[in-house]
Structures are given as C-alpha cells and as structure tokens.
Amino acid sequence: xxxxxxxxxxxxxxxxxxxxxxxxxxxxxxxxxxxxxxxxxxxxxxxxxxxxxxxxxxxxxxxxxxxxxxxxxxxxxxxxxxxxxxxxxxxxxxxxxxxxxxxxxxxxxxxxxxxxxxxxxxxxxxxxxxxxxxxxxxxxxxxxxxxxxxxxxxxxxxxxxxxxxxxxxxxxxxxxxxxxxxxxxxxxxxxxxxxxxxxxxxxxxxxxxxxxxxxxxxxxxxxxxxxxxxxxxxxxxxxxxxxxxxxxxxxxxxxxxxxxxxxxxxxxxxxxxxxxxxxxxxxxxxxxxxxxxxxxxxxxxxx
Length: 303
Description:
alpha+beta; Nuclear Transport Factor 2, Chain: A; disordered N terminus
C-alpha cells in the first residue's frame, strides 16, 4: 500500500511538472502573442525605434534608441546627407544599399545628428552620426517583442547575446570546401577559431605572420579575406576579461548589444603593441583595433 501511495505521489509530481512546463510555455507564447500592434507601437515610441526589414525577406526588426531626450527625427533623402557619411558608408560597407535616413533635431529644429539605415549582405545596419557627419555608433537592433526587454530571446535573431557561443564551429567540422580552399591557398595558416553566422556563412580566424579572417558563404565558397593584424606582428589570443577597461567601454558604447567573439593581443619584443577584437553587432561582424593603452584606432567590417 505504501508503494502504491509513493507511486501515486510520483505520478502526481510528474503531472504537476508537466502542467507547469506547459503553462510556462503557453504563458511565454501568450505574452508574445498579446504584444500586439498597440503594445509594439508603445514600445516603439518609448525606445525611439525605427522598423526595418532585412533584404533577405525575413521579419522586420527595430533599430532602437535613435534619438536622445527632447529630440525628434525628420526623414531626409540619403542624397542630402553630409558627404562624409557617404564616404564612411562606401569605405566600411562596400556594396551597401541605402534604405532610409533621418535628421535628428532638437526642440528648436537644429540638427543634432543623423541616423542612416542601410542593407549590407542582406542584413540591416543602423548607424548614428553627429551633426557634422562623423560616425558615432552602430545602433542596436531588437525584435518587436524584445523592445522593452533584454533585447533578445532564445531562438530569436539575436539569441547569441546570451553568451553561449552557439555559432562557434569546431575546426574539424568545417565543410570540405572551406578546409580545401584554405589548404590550397593558405597552406601555412594556423587555424584558430571558426564561426557560422545566421546566414549559414563561415568566418575562419587564422594566424600566418599576422592574423586574418577568411569569409565563406553558406556553400563554402570563398568571399573575402580580411587582415586583422598586420604582418610582422606577433598576435596571440586573449580573453575578453583580460582586455583593458577602456576597450570594453568603447565597445559597449559604440556597439550596444555587441557579442564578443575573439580577441588578439599584439606584442613585439615582449611589449604589448595593441589589441584587435572581433565582435558581432546585430549579426554583422567587425574587427576593432586598439593601441597598447586601449585607445580606439580603427574598425573593419568583416561580414
């Protein structure tokens, strides 16, 4: 009789857990479902967001925090932007397609800055510039139901923000087309790490008298090779926590919502010369270079 009672309790406990789990899943789905048009519109207003669509036809996302307090946006023609913005976009986002542009104004109507939305490799990129057209930051993106939350949810477009590095690919698991290309064209490379993006393309980090990021598409076809660290330098991998505080501060300010991927410390004769940090900002990867003191030097768009 005692055995039967214990089994009953076990069954009841399992049933309760199943009901609780189902309820949680339903609650999560319901919470997202109830964030209808009105809720999203309210969140858009509170976060000063701009809705944009990816060129690949996937759902819209929102570029957030485009204005400061007591500021507003006026739509402008991309052709009317300061020339320095066009130069910046051409240099850093070769082949981009301009989508939308805005002048950010104060209450008196004076231009305080510019916001530009472009499509780059089938992904939207939102950028903020100051009134003179100098780059300020890459604006964070969020999905609609994450506008007032942490900025991501499991399984969403930006789920790599949880830091679990699910996009990391074992070097041994790279497609034969990728490893074959590297073996043929860069036989002396020492492979360090590899990543698989949301577009199923690959980025492979390697060392070869410098550091490089070699980019491949989803089929393993070569796209481009980006030099991250100059030849003649001695780069070595370094943990995120070991980077100078001002490096981390610059990244979080200039690339809000960024995800750390990898970092190299550059040395010469045992002396630190600088750092290069590979990050992901809204599914676009950047290599950001700093000097030995952690001051920003340059940034390259990898993919």
